């Protein structure tokens, strides 16, 4: 066996491995994004068709009196519940709402599905099973990928206090307001999605939103958390909410 043959064989192996790595990177950075964007568009289409062809169950109304624009503005820590009739349970893996975050761009809109299974998060954002319903007293907690599968929370660190997170269930616009910059913690810190989230600064029951994603940007050793309180509700029939018109 000659030295030349060994060198040539090793070089060919290096080229093969290098090609495989390049293909894998292309798959992770590009193809998963293409598939996820198509999947999310499909989920958004499902919701649009559902909302256009049938009645949507009314969501839990927020407490507090109407504001000048007809919206409702509850306090962040208001624990009073109006006792709405029971609503159908969210169906695992199925979309039930659309989230808009103006900070991420005027065309940023992602479906919210029930559950946080791997397959579910490849089609949009996932609502943590067992956390509050949208707009209800408690903590409505949602997870999303930072990178890959459409990069829905790529710009997560840009969130700032006062930023709007608007979510529609087809009948009501729910506008939440971010209360603090994203918080970094470990994956095992499940207290961040408690009804009164640990380390959030909230001191009692309220109508809260928790967003979670991976940290660092291309890893998953930690989590980034953003908390918000329900600031206003507006009927979908009245057009786009004020938070999306500015």
Assembly category: single chain
Helix-residue proportion: 10-25%
Termini distance? 73 Å
Molecular shape: globular
As for the number of domains, it is 1
Q: Report the order of strands and helices.
A: HEEHEEEEEEEH
In the CATH classification, which architecture applies? Answer: Beta Barrel
Unreliable segments of 5+ consecutive residues? 22-26, 58-80
The number of helical runs is 3
- Order of strands across the biggest sheet? 1-2-3-4-8-9-6-5
The SS-based structural class is alpha+beta
Radius of gyration: 21 Å
Percentage beta strand? 15-25%
Task: Map the helices and strands.
Elements: H1 3-53, E1 95-100, E2 109-114, H2 118-121, E3 125-127, E4 138-143, E5 164-168, E6 172-178, E7 183-185, E8 207-215, E9 222-235, H3 242-245
Parallel strand pairs: 2-3, 4-8
Antiparallel strand pairs: 1-2, 1-5, 3-4, 5-6, 6-9, 7-9, 8-9
Q: How would you describe the overall organization of this protein?
A:
Residues 56-78 have a biased composition (Low complexity). Residues 56-92 are annotated as: Disordered. The chain crosses the membrane at residues 12-31. The protein has a single domain, classed as Sortase, Chain: A (Beta Barrel). It has three helices and nine strands, in the order H-E-E-H-E-E-E-E-E-E-E-H. The chain is of the alpha+beta class. The relative contact order is 0.16. Helix content is 24%, strand content 24%. Helix 2 links the parallel strand 2 (109-114) and strand 3. It has an eight-stranded mixed beta barrel. The protein has helices spanning 3-53, 118-121, 242-245; strands spanning 95-100, 109-114, 125-127, 138-143, 164-168, 172-178, 183-185, 207-215, 222-235.
């Amino acid at each position: 066996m000659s030295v030349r043959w060994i060198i040539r064989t090793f070089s060919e192996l290096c080229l093969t491995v290098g090609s495989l790595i390049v293909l894998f990177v292309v798959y992770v950075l590009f193809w998963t994004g293409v598939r996820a964007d198509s999947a999310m568009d499909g989920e958004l289409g499902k919701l649009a068709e559902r909302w256009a062809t049938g009645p949507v169950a009314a969501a839990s109304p927020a407490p507090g009196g109407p504001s000048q624009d007809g919206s409702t503005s509850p306090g962040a820590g208001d624990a009073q519940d109006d006792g709405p009739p029971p609503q159908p349970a969210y169906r695992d893996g199925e979309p039930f709402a659309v989230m808009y975050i103006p900070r991420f761009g005027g065309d940023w809109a992602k479906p919210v599905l029930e559950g946080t299974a791997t397959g579910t998060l490849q089609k949009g954002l996932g609502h943590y099973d067992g956390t509050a319903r949208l707009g209800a007293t408690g903590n409505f907690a949602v997870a999303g990928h930072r990178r890959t599968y459409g990069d829905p929370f790529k710009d997560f660190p840009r969130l700032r206090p006062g930023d709007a997170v608007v979510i529609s269930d087809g009948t009501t616009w729910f506008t939440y307001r971010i209360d603090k910059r994203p918080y970094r913690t470990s994956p095992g810190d499940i207290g961040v999605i408690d009804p009164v989230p640990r380390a959030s600064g909230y001191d009692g029951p309220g109508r809260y939103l928790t967003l979670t994603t991976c940290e660092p940007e291309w890893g998953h050793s930690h989590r980034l958390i953003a908390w918000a309180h329900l600031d206003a509700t507006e009927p979908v029939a009245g057009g786009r909410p004020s938070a999306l018109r500015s």
